[in-house]
Amino acid sequence: RSSIMIIDKYPGIKKAALLIAYDNGIINRLKPEQQWLESLDAVLGTNSVAEEDLDWFDQWLLSLDETNFHTACCGEETDMKKVADMAPSSRNGESMHKLLNTIFEA
Question: Which of 24, 30, 47, 96 meets the CB 3.0–4.6 Å disulfide criterion with 87?
Answer without folding.
Answer: 96
